[in-house]
Every structure is written in structure tokens, then in C-alpha cells.
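Repro:
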Amino acid sequence: MAKPEEPHKWYFVESCDIDSTSGRRGKRHIRPCSGQGIPTTMLVRCPREMRTDFRLGTKFKIWGKLTDREGGENFLSSWHGYKYYHETEPGYSEDKPKLIRLKTHLDR
């Protein structure tokens, strides 16, 4: 990654619809919640089902880090195999929920 010194930590994010979809897939995206020291306009790379399987405005807790594309625009990145918590799950409100690595096609 372009920012190896950035630590992973828990972030709160939410689903939203964006007006300008130029160069992006679809209107539904995930953005950081306010009050975390990062802009709410920042893009978030995360599992697709967070955008497709939950209603608009759903809040999530993700394990991720700030990065960029080799000197490009900053964004928040959470690997698709990490467990995320949505607002109705017990791990959402815990200070240090379990970090679970979900099984993927690479675990065969």
C-alpha cells in the first residue's frame, strides 16, 4: 500500500447515495461518519454487501486504515475478508470487538 506507516484501527462509516458517480460504480457508497478526524467526503473501500444488502443510512464499524493510490487521493480501506459490524450487532458498540478474518476463496 502507499501508506505503510498508517495503523489499522476501528472506524465508523455509513451508507449514502452520492450525486456524482463519474468513474464510480453505482450511486450507493460508504463514507466515514463525522467526529473521527477524517472528512466525511472521503471514499471507503469495503465489502460490496455493505452497499447492496443494507438500507441507506446503515452505520457500520470497520477495521481499516487510511491509504492512497501511490500519491493520489486519500481513502479509507478495509480488506473484504475482515468482519464488519452493523449498527444492530453486539460488536458495534464494543470498544474492542473481536477482529475476525472471514474465510475467502483464498483459504482453500
